[in-house]
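Recall the central idea of this unit: under ordinary conditions, the amino acid sequence of a chain determines the structure it adopts. In this exercise we apply that idea directly, starting from the sequence alone.
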Amino acid sequence: MPKVWIYLLALLCVLGLAVSVAVFALRPFENKSPDASYTLRDWHGKLALFAPGESGEEDQPVEVYDVYTHLLPESDVLSLQAGIPLESQEQLQRLLEDFGL
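Accordingly, the structure predicted from this sequence is:
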């Protein structure tokens, strides 16, 4: 009788592993397009967050922060002029903390 429980437990483990692998293999991978990310950049001398536009152009910022970009180090200013793409809210918060917010 104890061998039956061991075989049953082993069967359940194998079945669980098979289901997990099937779900992972059949689930479509999330495709994050670089066009879908927000961008942090300079806007009229201040730090601003831009959302992706319909045609890829970003006209107006979603939010403007009270950080004057001319007070930042030159390397940060150059990065902001080019635009810093953001992939997550955590990355935005980390950069805002780095810039003094």
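Residues 8 and 14 are 10 Å apart (CA to CA).
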